[in-house]
Amino acid sequence: MKALEGKIALVAGATRGAGRGIAVMLGEAGATVYCTGRSTRGAPSDLNRPETIEDTAEMVTAYGGRGIPVQTDHTVISEVESLFARIDREQQGRLDLVVNDIWGGEKWTEWNTPFWKHSLSNGLMMQERAVHSHMITSFHAARMMVKNRSGLIVEITDGTDYSYRGNLYYTLAKSSVINLVTSMSEELSPYNISAVSLTPGFLRSEEMLDHFGVSESNWQDAAAKDSHFAQSETPFFIGRAVASLAADPKAFSKTGRSLSSWGLSEEYGFKDIDGRKPHWGNYYKTIKHMY
């Protein structure tokens, strides 16, 4: 029996990147996964990328789980309410795991621009996309989980602390998620529900591969443009991190903590889908003096 056979999961923001990798690896572990996002076949989001939630759901099923695509804009409360009502109805009130991976701030981030010169509307949009959406989704997830007095909420972010990340609005969005987990864990702990934040290392997402003009088959060629890329990880690595955590009967002991894909790899022993075992934490220590 697979470790997550019979478990019900929601991955919010499963269209591409870490969200897709997480959804698929939960499928590999046997879970039923609701895959949500804005991009569907024939109707891409404003990011205008080719990936869709239907593609992700089919990958979940191909890997051994059951993928269910549901188009949802997680900044729209009524759409999120409808999503959770559907899960409640179809799964008889059961929801074991929610992963918040909503981001969508790529086009709004103005790197190397001080906040007073940065577009304020773009900066506020980043908070709506990457913080408000997480709050709305976790609000409804908690309501379902509290009824069952069990569950795990995983907030995907960038980094494990509150340090500056190169842009004020980006930093605020990513560190706010960590603070959200700290507070949620305090209020959810009495109900046996855990909440953690989780970061990948240098993520080899579809968008990043396109940026470097490579594919997964020749991704190492991009190291000539950026040596750090040699230490990158596929989205499936953080996917196996979430799957391992969700299958751990002692996962509650980690509630409120900021976790990393490489740290959980050390603890649980999983590898990336390509057989590598990247460790961005160790690598970053060697280059920290450069920044």
From TrEMBL:
SUPFAM superfamilies: NAD(P)-binding Rossmann-fold domains (SSF51735). This is NAD(P)-dependent dehydrogenase (Short-subunit alcohol dehydrogenase family). It comes from Sinobaca qinghaiensis.
